[in-house]
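Posting this for the archive.
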Amino acid sequence: MQTIGIKDLQVNPATLTKALEAHEYTLITKRSKPLGIALAFDDKIVTQGLKTALMIDAYEKSLLSLGQLSKALDMSKRETMKMLSLSGIDVIDYDFKDELKDLDSFL
């Protein structure tokens, strides 16, 4: 996430434009205090809602795991996987720690 002060934004608005074109979230500050967040417009925001679109974007960037995404959207993993699949997003659900636990209980 990029941070831009309001004064810098007034002097050079292209900084924000470049960040939006690169689909980067940008924190806008005034006297070093957060004022707002700018994000690029995407059709997903309209069709899925802002929260869901942001969470899916974070998942696609590997900032959230499938479990974290499911919890944030208050959905089961199965529902989340189905939603991602219908959206054309690859889904991999493999937790090595869980597999080790299952193997230990099997042995």
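The radius of gyration is 19 Å. Residues 50-60 form the longest helix (11 residues).
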